[in-house]
Amino acid sequence: MSEILAHERARALLLSWLSAEQRRQFEATSSFVVVGSTTGRRYCITYGRQLNVFALDDSGRAVQALCFVPEDMPATADCMLAQKIALETDETAALAIAERAPDDYWVRFWQAYNTYAGNRERRSSIVSAAGTSPASDRPGPPGRAFRRAPGQ
Amino acid sequence: MHVQRVMNHTGDTAYRFDPANSAEVKEAMERFNELVKNQRFVAARKVGDGCAELVREFDPAHEEVVFHRPLKGG
Does B54 touch chain A if contact means CB atoms closer than 8 Å? Predict the structure, then answer.
């Protein structure tokens, strides 16, 4: 129970720190895009604590998966907030400590995530069009986003 | 009331203080220095819509500051 409360509290804090656009992205896909403070490069931070940050190219495709987390591994949304702060305030330091995932691993990861995110966005649109609040369709527990294989 | 939020296993712990109360400001400054200078926490505050800025020195004018442990490669 306390873990659920921790995740809810962390989620509320994260939402309060996101821009309006990032909040919209997070509500729709459980991920959001930030801009690096040094290079201006865009990164997608997805719901998770490990290998959940993707460097994007100009067309929005992931070109690298990165992993950097607070030392004490707090609740998932807290971890995402720390990653956002790091990339938006000291991108160079964040990249210097980040681990990179092997290509074959993160490519499958990204495809599965996009499939999941696309399905979520479509479901939200359908629910909104039907006049029902999409608020019930909240992100699940950590890792849920990546348990579905592409096409499911 | 201003707030210092320290991320931890409960999500975060919020320490509120009144910037007009010198005793509370002193306590907040001591907490800031302990976290940032002794325990190497990273401190940041919101500036504008969704933008963050690192905070290296205590300033009682900052309405909300969050603290998290230093980052490491996963």
Answer: yes
Buried b (16+ CB within 10 A) or exposed e, A72-82: eebbbbbbbbb
Sequence-ordered alpha helix ranges (H) in B1-74: 22-33
Which tokens in the block code for residue A95?
């990249």
Question: How far is the alpha carbon of B48 from chain A, nearest alpha carbon, in Å?
Answer: 9
The number of domains in chain B is 1
Helix (H, G, I), strand (E, B) or coil at B13: strand
For chain B (74 residues), the mean pLDDT of every run of 10, in chain order, is 94 96 98 95 92 95 96 88
| Tens-digit pLDDT profile for residues A45-93 | 999 988 899 999 898 888 889 999 999 878 999 999 999 999 999 999 9
Residue B20 belongs to domain spanning: 2-68
Residues 59-98 of A with CB under 8 A from B: 67-72, 74-75, 78, 81-86, 88-90, 93-94, 97-98
Q: Where are the domains of chain A?
A: 2-146
The pTM of the whole model exceeds 0.90: no
Does residue B74 fall inside a structural domain? no
Backbone angles phi, psi at B21, to 5 degrees: -105, 110
